[in-house]
Amino acid sequence: MQNAQSDLRTVRVRPTRDGSEDGRWDRLVAAHLYLSFQRMFHRALRHVATLDGTWLALLGWQPGNLRVGVRDRWIGWSVQQKLGRLHLIAQNVRYSLSRHMCRATRKVRVWC
Fold first, then answer.
1. Do 57 and 98 form a contact (C-beta atoms < 8 A)?
2. For the segment 81-90, what is each residue's pLDDT rounded down to a tens digit?
3. How far apart are CA 10 and CA 96, in angstroms?
4. What is the reported pTM?
5. Which of 5, 59, 80, 100 has the least CB density, counted as fewest CB within 10 Å?
6. Within 13 Å of residue 109, how many CA atoms lie on the same side as its CB?
7. Burial, 23: exposed, middle or buried (Cβ in 10 Å; 0-12, 13-18, 19+)?
8. Helix (H) or strand (E) segment spanning residue 71
């Protein structure tokens, strides 16, 4: 971690492992995210950005909400298309970055 900001090429973004890391992910997000966090609902994906095994950032994804006006206007789906294709949308619902790695934010977001 000493030289983390100078060599971000080795940052890796991966899903949590087989559910065994989900509890740790949930605890860290609850402790460090400024928004309230109880748990992820429905089908959810949890990703972690790591550098040399150290967790730097946590990202959470869930199915798209039924109504997001800006997204709906941008995509331009009809009501029927939206109902048939909404399962293809994932939205980022949580993003938490360790305080000493704020400079990594841009690179982590690009990879996801």
1. yes
2. 988 988 888 8
3. 19
4. 0.67
5. 80
6. 12
7. exposed
8. helix 69-75
